[in-house]
Specification:
single chain, about 120 residues, mainly alpha, 6 helices, about 80% helix, about 0% strand, DUF6664 domain-containing protein, DUF6664
Length: about 120
Amino acid sequence: MSEVKDVLDNFRFETFVDVHSNIFAEYLSSVIAELSKENSEYRSIEERIEELYKEYPKVMEALDTEKPSDLSEQECKALIEVLELRNRLSDMQQEAIYFRGCYDSVGYLKKAGIL
């Protein structure tokens, strides 16, 4: 146990964010970009959102502008679906980032000689 304490006392731990804070947003974007390539459910949700935008152009306008929008009942339903799907994408992105952090943590521990 004292060997582990010695390693910890002598190890200068810098997180990825500490060292690369200027590119952290890019790093997160790259993790998220992989989702579309590797996760078929994520890709299906993106495709469904695009279908809704094509079928109901006013839905995209309602999300992209700060002006009031007059939506039909169908467009309102489509807007609700888009928002729900975007929330699912966000949840999936956060999960991917979380697990990438776990993966990186194991790498740090191995590099430090703790694992």
